[in-house]
Design goal:
This protein is α/β, with parallel strands linked by helices. It has 15 helices and 15 strands.
């Protein structure tokens, strides 16, 4: 949604952005004279039964959202992301009817399928969410969605016409130089223990000014990768039920076993998992119990400025988002591709609209398949002559992907829709 606002602002719209400000907004938004950011107060944590908690949370959100909407400038249209449908879509639709404003929905998934992960499809709340999406989706003045598969589903099952706007990486997700990577490693080594330098014999007498686990900088200013260095595996998550991190844990178990059996052909593997969410502490405790020798996992919360840089510095990405509906695509993969990072992604219905197996990344369904992909990719790291041709194919595909960015795609696909409003 921040990218939408940035594009609106660059197209000389005045924009009111309403949402939770749990992390620092993009600098382009906070510094823009066209943009006003309105923070919604999050629901206070209360020790209540789940049903009561959901009801009170919905009421809280409805009241705080409505109060915020009343306080903003009267809009020509409101672009509302779904999920969440309850109470957001309902409150925004009623507000638009009252002030005669256009109501537009940006479909990233279905609320009812997300709620259905942990309950029955016949659950009253799940059925209510589906009804709200069905009714209000048809009443919207316009609809955007993120895949061809979702466009077809909206049209065939709900008779909702929509425009496909694929997520594309903005320019700050881009490949970086070795010098920039070194600067990031130096910065993060203050807080990430595994990024700190180890004493390798080949460097004991070198003319070194700075050293990390991955790189060295000589007094001349030249930066080099270490000949013997760990590989860097990156994943990002919101730590929710639609991402099963037990798959990655089991795959890392497999990598650990292979690396111990044949240590001369496998590097140490540092796995960085970024993000925050409800299941983070559960998986932290699971990983803490592992006695891995060749694998290290850390879960930092990175600043906005450092997240694109860590993606560009990685050797391989992992995405465990499987989509509750099977109809949306993980934006984290888009960011990784924009940064030049190949990805292993969970296979589901429409993921091939983004990840093409063997061409720009890999698809897997089981921990065994992911473990096999990690072992193949990092065999004889960093040279791996056996996979050199495939790696070249993947990196060429990622360069092609990076040619179309968010701004150009938005102006081509989304802006004409908004101009009609």
């Amino acid at each position: 949604m921040q990218y939408h606002v940035k594009s609106f602002s660059e197209s000389h719209y005045n924009v009111d952005l309403i949402g939770y400000v749990e992390s620092t907004p993009l600098e382009e938004l906070t510094s823009s004279p066209n943009v006003r950011i309105h923070q919604i107060s999050p629901f206070p944590e209360l020790n209540l039964p789940n049903l009561l908690k959901y009801v009170f949370k919905a009421l809280w959100q409805a009241i705080t959202l409505l109060m915020t909407l009343i306080s903003i400038r009267k809009p020509k249209f409101i672009l509302c992301q779904n999920p969440p449908a309850i109470p957001t879509l309902l409150v925004v639709y009623v507000y638009c009817v009252c002030i005669r404003s256009k109501f537009i929905i940006d479909w990233h998934n279905y609320t009812h399928t997300i709620l259905g992960i942990e309950s029955s499809p016949r659950n009253p709340i799940v059925r209510l969410a589906r009804m709200v999406e069905y009714v209000l989706g048809r009443k919207a003045a316009g609809n955007l969605c993120v895949t061809r598969a979702m466009q077809a589903d909206l049209n065939s099952n709900w008779r909702i016409s929509s425009t496909v706007l694929y997520d594309r990486p903005p320019l700050h997700f881009h490949p970086t130089t070795l010098k920039e990577k070194h600067q990031l490693f130096v910065k993060l080594s203050d807080t990430i223990e595994s990024f700190k330098a180890k004493a390798y014999k080949e460097y004991e007498n070198a003319d070194i000014l700075e050293e990390t686990a991955f790189t060295i900088r000589a007094k001349s200013g030249e930066v080099k990768y270490k000949t013997v260095r760990p590989a860097l595996l990156i994943s990002s998550t919101s730590w929710t039920a639609d991402e099963d991190f037990s798959i990655l844990v089991q795959a890392l178990d497999m990598f650990e076993s292979k690396a111990l059996e044949d240590p001369t052909h496998y590097p140490d593997l540092i796995c960085i998992i970024t993000g925050k969410g409800p299941l983070k502490e559960h998986y932290r405790s699971v990983i803490k119990c592992k006695l891995w020798k060749k694998v290290k996992v850390t879960m930092p919360w990175l600043e906005n400025i450092d997240y694109p840089k860590i993606l560009a510095a990685g050797d391989l990405g992992v995405c465990l988002h499987y989509s509750s509906s099977g109809l949306d695509l993980p934006m984290k993969v888009v960011d990784m591709f924009g940064s030049g990072l190949p990805v292993c992604a969970v296979k589901f219905n429409c993921i091939a609209e983004l990840v093409e197996h063997g061409k720009n990344g890999f698809l897997f369904e089981t921990p065994y398949e992911l473990g096999h992909q990690l072992s193949e990719w990092f065999y004889d790291f960093p040279s791996n002559i056996a996979m050199s041709n495939q790696k070249e194919t993947i990196h060429t595909s990622l360069k092609d992907f990076q040619q179309l960015r968010w701004t150009e795609n938005w102006k081509k696909i989304a802006q004409p829709l908004f101009e009609q409003m």
